[in-house]
Structure formats: structure tokens, C-alpha cells
Amino acid sequence: MPILSDIDHLFKSLIEMPLSTLGDVLHDEFLVIVINALDKCGRLRHDSTGHKNYKFLLHTLKHWIEINYLKKFKLVITSQPEDSIMQTFPKLISTHINILSGNDVKLEDKASNDICVFLISKLSGMDMEEAWVTEALDYLVPHAAGMFI
């Protein structure tokens, strides 16, 4: 299985070995490693190689919780809640947090207020008429729902 050994080798050389040399880390000084959009890793490839790579990657990441000295580091994975990921990281060994996006974000949410404040700060320097700024905000804030976290 050359694919699995390649992924395992990369994991060991890029993550496991460097972190093993750091020694003790205080509880309030946890290092955080982020893997963003795990659901996009190989999922878009419909060939068998891409699917196998993706399965091996999930297996390798699950291995993270089995290595004692890696438990002192936080692994944060962002992803859509796909079955393969949810099965690999069940709630018994991980914490799942749902971040609203798109149509699930409401105008009264804090994120929408943050978007409005950001857009006002950017539009204020453009010498736009007040009515145009209001119209732009009325359009842009709802359409940006969930895009700013």
C-alpha cells in the first residue's frame, strides 16, 4: 500500500516528529494545529486513487489521538459534517461545533452586525450618498451571511 505509507510518512515527518521534540507544554500553552476544509481533501476527485487517499488521510488523522505526546496539542478540523468524517471522529473522542453559514445566519446575529460594522467602515471613505450606503448594506449584509466568522 504505497499511498498509506506516503501519507503516514508525511504525517510522521511534518507533524509527529517535529512535535515530539518540543518536550513538555504547559496546559495553558497548548499549541493548536488547524486542518481547514477536510471535506475538500480528495472528495472532489471521483477516481479510486483520490478516494483511497482521502480514506488514508482520515485514518492517519485518527491516529493522532492514539499518540500520547500528541494529546497535549489541539487538533482543530474544519469541515462539512460528512459521514466519513463523523464516523472517523465520533463525539466520544471529539467535540463537534456547528458554525452557522449561508441561510442559517439571521440578520440579528452578531456575525451580521460585525459584517455591517465592517462594511460601514469601508464604505464611509468612498463619499457615497447616505441612501446608497443604506441600499448597499441592505443588500450586502444578508448576502454575506455566514461568510465572516
Could you walk me through the main structural features you see in this protein, from its secondary elements to its overall organization?
With 149 residues, the chain is mainly alpha-helical. It has 2 domains: 2-88; 102-143, no CATH class. The chain is built from 5 helices and 2 strands, in the order αβαβααα. It has helices spanning 2-20, 48-63, 83-88, 110-123, 130-143, and strands at residues 32-35, 74-77. It has a two-stranded parallel ribbon. α1 (2-20) runs parallel beside α2 (48-63) and α4 (110-123) runs antiparallel to α5. The longest helix has 19 residues, at 2-20. The protein is elongated and about 60 Å long.
What is this entry, summarized?
The protein is mostly helical and 149 residues long. It has helices at residues 2-20, 48-63, 83-88, 110-123, 130-143, and strands at 32-35, 74-77. The protein folds into 2 domains: 2-88; 102-143, no CATH class.
> From the alpha-carbon coordinates, what is the Rg to the nearest angstrom?
21 Å
Order of helices and strands: HEHEHHH
Number of distinct beta strands:
2
Largest sheet: 2 strands, parallel
The shape is elongated
The percentage of residues in β strands lies in: 5-15%
Residue-averaged pLDDT: 78
Spatial order of strands in the largest sheet: 1-2
Helix content: 40-55%
- Low-confidence stretches are none
How many domains in all? Answer: 2
